[in-house]
Amino acid sequence: MNVFRIVRADRVALEGNGAAEFPGRWNTLDVPCVYTSPTPALAQLEVMANVEDWKIFMTVKHVVLRIDVPDDRLHPVPEGDLPAGWADAVCDPRTQEMGASLLNKPEILAFAVPSAVSRTERNVVLNARVTDFEKLVKVEGLFPFEFDERLMK
For the stretch 53-78, what's the b/e string if a residue is b when 16 or more beta carbons lie within 10 angstroms of its beta carbon? Predict the structure, then answer.
């Protein structure tokens, strides 16, 4: 399956260090992972939901990565398994622990979870610590991406 990730043009590596340093909804501190979405549009929404300073953000060049992940290595997480409050604006430590638990399983290359900003869609979290990650997960394309300033009003 193809997934997408929007990043600064000077930070295209898929090592997961950013998430390990600044944990998100599905990982704890020091647990690397790569957050992706099934479409560039959802990837854009996810980025926009987390921008703190638009003036600085818009001065940086961005790219969208098209990443290939083997379908048979995707672990779906049923919404019924998620803790209450999983989509709250402030990340719940229970979702972070749940994701970290999945990321600590060497057989899980990727897991799919509902998006907190678009509940009918799912995001895919990649486990950068899986053996042969670089061989299994491939960047298939890299394209310039510009955020439309009208969306930042």
Answer: eeeebeeeebbbbbbebeeebbbebe
Q: For residue 67, what are the domain limits?
A: 2-145
**106: in domain:** yes
Give the largest CA-CA distance in the chain.
Answer: 43
pTM listed for this prediction:
0.95
58 contacts 17 by C-beta, under 8 angstroms: no
Total domains in the chain come to 1
Given the DSSP bridges, would you call strands 34-36 and 122-126 parallel, antiparallel or unpaired?
antiparallel
pLDDT tens across 33-48, in order?
999 999 999 999 999 9
Q: How far apart are CA 82 and CA 113, in angstroms?
A: 9
Nearest to 24 by CA among 4, 44, 49, 41: 49
Domain assignment of residue 71, yes or no:
yes
Residue 151 covered by a domain: no
